[in-house]
Amino acid sequence: MPILVEDYPPDAMLSRENVSPQILGLYVGVPATEELVTGQPEDLTRVILFKKNLEKVCQDRSDLIDQIQITVRHEVGHHLGLSEDDLERLGLA
């Protein structure tokens, strides 16, 4: 699954996905637990990281590296079908 990096989430994405402008990352796609064997995906499954938002919440390079790892794991968790509650229990929220 590709991991893309953008500075900020575009306005169209904010309204379409109903997410905060401060979002750190976003999983786009159908979770693996919901995919149909013969179904064609409507969009490219991917994780998008928002560089400027990540930088804003981090104090230094080490903190940024940790937050990127947490964010990627969080978004991959969504791909695997985990809920926000599941991710929180795993320390990925």
How would you describe this protein?
- The protein is α+β, with helices and mostly antiparallel strands and about 90 residues long.
- It has one domain: 2-Layer Sandwich (Zincin-like), CATH 3.30.2010.
- Helix content is about 40%, strand content about 15%.
- It contains four helices and three strands.
- It has a three-stranded mixed β-sheet.
- It is globular, with a radius of gyration of 14 Å.
In brief:
With 93 residues, this protein is α+β, with helices and mostly antiparallel strands. 42% of the residues lie in helices and 14% in strands.
Structure characteristics:
alpha+beta; single chain; 4 helices; 3-stranded mixed beta sheet; Zincin-like; 93 residues; globular
Within the largest sheet, what's the order of strands? 1-3-2
What is the H/E string?
A: EHEEHHH
Q: Give the tally of structural domains.
A: 1
Regions with little confidence, pLDDT below 50 for 5+ residues:
none
Task: Report the total helices.
Answer: 4
User: What is the CA–CA distance across the termini?
Assistant: 21 Å
Mean of residue pLDDT values: 90
Described by strand count, sense and barrel closure, the largest sheet is: 3 strands, mixed
Give the strand content.
5-15%
